[in-house]
């Protein structure tokens, strides 16, 4: 045990109290998990916490209680293993030991002769939920924020009994959903009602008197007045469900996430193995995965998303931000309309759209109204909010909107303090917009551009107040992708930048500060990356070979699917910008141009469209998939190195954050630089690693 | 517009176990106490559709913090009643819950609504008596009220001066009997039915459950005789012969009798009459005497018609002054059968409903009793009394009609 002691563990103590429950002739033992902090620092289990629970169970059972129940502190049951301690484990033997310790302590609740209950009063994840699964019965509060077994999303498996208990409680289809599919789907969590419907809890109780009702319910069970019935688990479908799950995994990940496959194996074991065999297999899987590169990258990525995304590197003092009380949106196309909805919804200030004529404006405003209606009809927005948003979003044609009119008029831009443009990607068009706008807005109004590749500095250079121009680059679809690249132009001042970060935060986006370099971060890297793939195609590599070449990385989509999402025309345009800036690294692919000009989808139902494929003109020097992949990774390593050298972002961590949040690149790659480091690519291409050994990888 | 006054009935009532200030509820919010009571009332009466509740009156003396924010309305919302159910906060110090009951009863009787919840809460640990008060300086400048009137213990000493036959020995003996009657009532399971167990929590023990009152204690005349008299040197009022400082909440369900019958709700007591009267603030403890006379007069009854009394024991002396006035013995079995606030506790604005829930249970046990009353003294010189009729009374209908016409 002492070998496991984690010096920095915030110990979640298991507090034991004898409770007299009306109707029972002897006290019950109630164990509260509480780390002594409020809900912003949730309960978790490290060696100290497990030992405390072990002692509490011993003391509880010694008093021969009517029953033993475990509950959490307000709002939190327990969110699982203390992840910060995992990288500190010295060797595989220690990893094995932490798995066994959890199993040994939790098993006492499963093997108890006295009835055991979990009163799941709040968030229950990972080891917290596994603890609950060991209890004989579970009550669940309708106020619990989320339930999940998210281990696979990080690169682990539920290693404290989850893979063995859950499928035998709720059946293999639902267990596969909770253990595999949800973690791999942006780490989806269950709401209490869903969890209860799946059978994870025996009874769902309202939060107002959850503990009282739970104790009463438990007393009813002990007295035999409450009968708990659970549907029988169907063992016949087990193999079929897992076969299908494995196929889906292969299609999506191509073997790139070892944790997912280990989880699948454990679910298979759970069908017939006795519990001891199953949990021993969990111990082995856990120990292997703790010492896997994928987990170390996953923990690093988790930390980036949880911490660095909330405190953007290089952002100026928040106090400099100016208030934003009205937003103008130049353009009323699809992007502009999405922005209008987002700004109105999150900032709750008037949002006025403009475009060349009334027809386009009406179409943009109608889009926003339709989205609001949809949200209401799906129950995602209440009527009061909808009524407010209808009143906030308006528009008028440019002639009217840009007229120096009476401030206070909703459709005027004159009193906007934040204007964002989403017009055609042409520098002169954008300069023209800003020049006209500058005549009517205040000198401090922030002018933000959603350009994906044009120079923010160039756009500002002829203005009287270039210091208020900033890049504000969203990713499509705006409502889904959390990244916002905030671009500092040469003359952008701190107040403007601070305002941009404040607005980004209000929009609930994760902002990363980038310099005014061509195509910023995500588009530059994706273009470079796709460029190598298209260079291979141009050289004669079969389209399907090039398209599948990156499969071993387990990226969210293959190159051609990505191209289709971005739009071949947009990709070609961004490619042109980058080619102009860096002609020796960013080529122009005639085949990409052909695809764009064909106007046809390159991918149909996940298959390459032969109609488009046959338009390509290719060489006679095909590359192997291996070579394509190597070229792509080398190109990424080189480009990232140059970007860091140019100071596009502060550190490699920001590159990774951008790729995770803006391109959906996976945790198991750590975004990208940990993968480039661990495959030796960075050292070979640049002579150095991006991150020191151990930071996002196994220690040296 | 001609209308009939409707009969109002007490359907059901519950309370949290009462805690000692700084005791088991130290980390429990006041509003949570009363919310728990409201939820339990609804749960015990599933035949009542929640939207049929048309008013929620909740009393608190110190309407600050978790006892503020129009607690009747906020508690209704937090208890999960439909948003269409209105509510309000009410205050008449110790008689807050009693006034909540009589106020909604008035509303029901005149037809403003059919069903209401009335209750009270006082968390004296979180809100000590006198928190945030700002007495008008004219009280002193114009000698309107003796300054001792604002200190309840001092008013009890003042009352001892006025009724010298109530000695400290009598007060202590009455207090001991209160403790003994409560202990016996607990042993016989009389009080538990009213109690709503309440989740409690502290940093070192985690969650727990408050299932019984915290204040009752094992004592003796000898021990009581040794207690200090904090309100006067060599005085008569001690912590032993007065109610303590307590935390707790109550709630009750009141209905028009016809609505109760329509919905199949139990009828535990029928409201006969009530009276509130002001007295000299410096001897507020005499309040229940004139308020009882008034309520009896309105009902056309005399003290002899009352078969059961639930008198709030703020201080032994004020109960004894009441009993002396009406010629009732200190140990009369009709009075506070299960003890009173000296043992159980007195979370100010909540206590009125506790008296009623206990009287209701005693009515069920005593079908030979037709009338009972609940009464209490009130700070700043008042008394309040409610007279109730026992629906389980087995006397003849003819006799009832005749007596009703008297």
List keywords for this structure.
heterodimer, A: 700 residues, alpha/beta, 2-enoyl-CoA Hydratase, Chain A, domain 1, Rossmann fold, N-(1-d-carboxylethyl)-l-norvaline Dehydrogenase, domain 2, 3 domains, eight-stranded mixed β-sheet, six-stranded mixed β-sheet, 29 helices, 19 strands, 47% helix, 11% strand, globular, B: 406 residues, alpha+beta, Peroxisomal Thiolase, Chain A, domain 1, 2 domains, ten-stranded mixed β-sheet, two-stranded antiparallel ribbon, 12 strands
Folded structure, characterized:
The complex is a heterodimer of chains A (about 700) and B (about 400). Chain A has about 700 residues and is of the alpha/beta class. Chain A is about 45% helix and about 10% strand. Chain A folds into 3 domains: about 1-290, Alpha-Beta Complex (2-enoyl-CoA Hydratase, Chain A, domain 1), CATH 3.90.226.10; about 320-515, Rossmann fold (3-Layer(aba) Sandwich), CATH 3.40.50; about 520-645, N-(1-d-carboxylethyl)-l-norvaline Dehydrogenase, domain 2 (Orthogonal Bundle). An 8-stranded mixed β-sheet of chain A has the order 12-11-10-13-14-15-16-17, with helices on both faces. Chain A has a 6-stranded mixed β-sheet with strand order 1-2-3-5-7-9, with helices on both faces. In chain A, α18 links the parallel β14 (about 445-450) and β15. In chain A, α2 packs antiparallel against α11 (about 275-290) and α9 (about 240-255) runs antiparallel to α10. Chain A is globular, with a radius of gyration of 28 Å. The mean pLDDT of chain A is about 95. Chain B is of the alpha+beta class and about 400 residues long. Chain B folds into 2 domains: about 10-125 and about 245-270, Peroxisomal Thiolase, Chain A, domain 1 (3-Layer(aba) Sandwich); about 140-190 and about 270-405, Thiolase/Chalcone synthase (Peroxisomal Thiolase, Chain A, domain 1, 3-Layer(aba) Sandwich). Chain B is built from 13 helices and 12 strands. In chain B, β11 and β12 (about 380-390) form a beta hairpin. The two termini of chain B are about 30 Å apart. Classes of the chains: A alpha/beta (about 700), B alpha+beta (about 400). Chains A and B meet through β1, β2 and α8 of A and α1, β6 and β7 of B.
């Amino acid at each position: 045990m002492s070998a496991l002691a984690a010096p920095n563990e915030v110990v979640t103590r298991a507090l034991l109290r004898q409770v007299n429950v009306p109707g029972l002739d002897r006290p019950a033992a109630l164990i509260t998990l509480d780390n002594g902090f409020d809900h912003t620092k949730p309960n978790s289990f490290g060696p100290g916490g497990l030992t405390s629970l072990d002692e509490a169970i011993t003391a509880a059972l010694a008093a021969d209680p009517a029953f033993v129940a475990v509950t959490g502190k307000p709002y939190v049951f327990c969110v699982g293993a203390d992840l910060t301690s995992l990288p500190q484990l010295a060797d595989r033997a220690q990893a094995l030991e932490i798995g066994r310790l959890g199993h040994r302590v939790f098993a006492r609740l499963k093997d108890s002769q006295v009835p055991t209950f979990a009163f799941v009063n709040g968030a229950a994840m990972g080891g917290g939920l596994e603890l609950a699964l060991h209890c004989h019965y579970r009550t669940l509060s309708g106020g619990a924020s989320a339930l999940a077994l998210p281990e696979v999303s990080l690169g682990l498996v539920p290693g404290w009994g989850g893979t063995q208990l859950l499928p035998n409680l709720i059946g293999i289809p639902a267990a596969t959903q909770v253990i595999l599919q949800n973690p791999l789907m942006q780490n989806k969590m269950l709401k209490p009602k869903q969890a209860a419907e799946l059978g994870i809890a025996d009874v769902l109780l309202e939060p107002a008197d959850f503990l009282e009702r739970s104790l009463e319910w438990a007393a009813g069970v002990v007295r035999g007045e409450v009968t708990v019935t659970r549907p029988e688990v169907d063992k016949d479908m087990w193999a079929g469900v897992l076969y299908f799950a494995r196929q889906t995994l292969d299609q999506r990940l191509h073997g790139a996430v070892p944790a997912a496959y280990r989880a699948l194996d454990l679910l298979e074991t759970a069908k017939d193995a006795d519990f001891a065999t199953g949990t021993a297999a969990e111990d082995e899987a856990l120990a292997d995965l703790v010492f896997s590169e994928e987990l170390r990258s996953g923990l690093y990525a988790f930390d980036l998303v949880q911490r660095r995304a909330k405190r953007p590197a290089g952002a100026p003092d928040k106090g400099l931000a100016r208030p934003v009380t009205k937003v103008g949106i130049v353009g009323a196309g699809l992007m502009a309309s999405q922005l209008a909805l987002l700004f109105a919804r999150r900032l709750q200030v008037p949002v006025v759209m403009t475009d060349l004529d009334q027809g386009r404006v009406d179409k943009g405003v109608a889009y926003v109204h339709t989205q609001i209606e949809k949200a209401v009809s799906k129950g995602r927005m209440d009527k009061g909010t909808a009524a407010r948003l209808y009143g906030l979003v308006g528009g008028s044609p440019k002639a009217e909107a840009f007229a120096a009119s009476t401030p206070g008029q909703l459709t005027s831009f004159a009193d906007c303090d934040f204007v964002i443009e989403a017009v055609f990607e042409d520098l002169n068009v954008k300069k023209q917009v800003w020049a006209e706008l500058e005549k009517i807005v205040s000198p401090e109004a922030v002018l933000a551009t959603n350009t994906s590749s044009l120079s923010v500095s160039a756009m500002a250079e002829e203005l009287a107040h270039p210091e208020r121009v900033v890049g504000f680059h969203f990713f499509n679809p705006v409502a889904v992708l959390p990244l916002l690249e905030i671009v500092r132009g040469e003359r952008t001042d701190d107040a403007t930048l601070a305002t941009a970060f404040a607005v980004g935060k209000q929009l609930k986006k994760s902002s990363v500060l980038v310099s005014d370099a061509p195509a910023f971060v995500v588009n530059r890297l994706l273009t470079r990356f796709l460029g190598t793939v298209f260079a291979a195609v141009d050289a004669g590599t079969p389209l399907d070979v090039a398209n599948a070449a990156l499969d071993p990385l387990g990226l969210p989509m293959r190159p051609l699917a990505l191209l289709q999402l971005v739009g071949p025309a947009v990709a070609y345009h961004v490619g042109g910008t980058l080619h102009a800036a860096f002609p020796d690294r960013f080529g122009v692919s005639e085949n990409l141009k052909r695809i764009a000009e064909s106007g046809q989808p390159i991918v149909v139902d996940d298959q390459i469209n032969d109609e488009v494929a046959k338009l390509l003109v290719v060489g006679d020097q095909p590359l192997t998939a291996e070579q394509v992949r190597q070229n792509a990774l080398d190109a990424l390593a080189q480009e990232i190195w140059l970007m860091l050298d140019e100071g596009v972002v502060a550190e490699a961590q920001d590159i990774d954050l951008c790729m995770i949040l803006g391109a959906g690149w996976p945790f198991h790659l750590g975004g990208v630089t940990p993968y480039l480091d661990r495959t030796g690519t960075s050292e070979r291409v640049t002579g150095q690693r991006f991150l020191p050994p151990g930071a996002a990888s196994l220690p040296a | 517009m001609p209308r009939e006054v409707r009969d109002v009935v007490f359907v059901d009532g519950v309370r949290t176990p009462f805690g000692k200030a700084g005791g088991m509820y130290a980390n429990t919010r006041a509003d949570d106490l009363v919310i728990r009571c409201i939820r339990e009332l609804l749960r015990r009466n599933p035949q009542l559709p929640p939207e049929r509740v048309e008013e929620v009156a909740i009393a608190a003396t110190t309407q600050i913090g978790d006892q503020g924010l129009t607690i009747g309305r906020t508690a209704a919302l937090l208890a999960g009643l439909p948003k269409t159910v209105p509510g309000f906060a009410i205050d008449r110090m110790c008689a807050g819950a009693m006034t909540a009951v009589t106020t909604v009863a008035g509303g029901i009787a005149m037809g403003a609504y059919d069903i209401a919840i009335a209750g009270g809460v006082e968390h004296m640990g979180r809100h000590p008596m006198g928190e945030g008060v700002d007495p008008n300086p004219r009280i002193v400048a114009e000698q309107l009220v003796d300054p001792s009137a604002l200190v309840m213990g001092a008013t009890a000493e003042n009352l001892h001066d006025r009724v010298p036959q109530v000695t400290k020995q009598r007060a202590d003996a009455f207090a001991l009997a209160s403790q003994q009657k409560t202990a016996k009532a607990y042993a016989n399971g009389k009080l538990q039915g009213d109690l709503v167990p309440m989740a409690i929590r502290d940093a070192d023990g985690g969650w727990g459950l408050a299932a019984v009152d915290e204040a009752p204690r094992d004592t003796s005349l000898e021990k009581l005789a040794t207690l200090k008299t904090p309100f006067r040197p060599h005085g008569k009022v001690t912590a032993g012969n007065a109610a303590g400082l307590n935390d707790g909440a109550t709630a009750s369900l009141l209905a028009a009798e016809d609505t109760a019958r329509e919905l199949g709700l139990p009828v535990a007591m029928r409201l006969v009459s009530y009276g509130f009267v002001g007295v000299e603030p410096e001897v507020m403890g005499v309040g229940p005497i004139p308020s009882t006379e008034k309520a009896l007069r309105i009902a056309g009854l005399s003290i002899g018609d009352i078969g059961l009394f639930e008198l709030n024991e703020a201080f032994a002396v004020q109960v004894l002054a009441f009993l002396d006035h009406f010629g009732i013995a200190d140990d009369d079995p009709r009075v506070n059968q299960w003890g009173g606030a000296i043992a159980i506790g007195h979370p100010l604005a909540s206590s009125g409903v506790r008296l009623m829930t206990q009287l209701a249970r005693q009515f069920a046990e005593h079908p030979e009793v037709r009338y009972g009353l609940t009464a209490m003294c009130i700070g700043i010189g008042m008394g309040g009394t409610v007279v109730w009729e026992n629906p389980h009374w087995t006397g003849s209908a003819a006799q009832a009609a005749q007596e009703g016409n008297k």
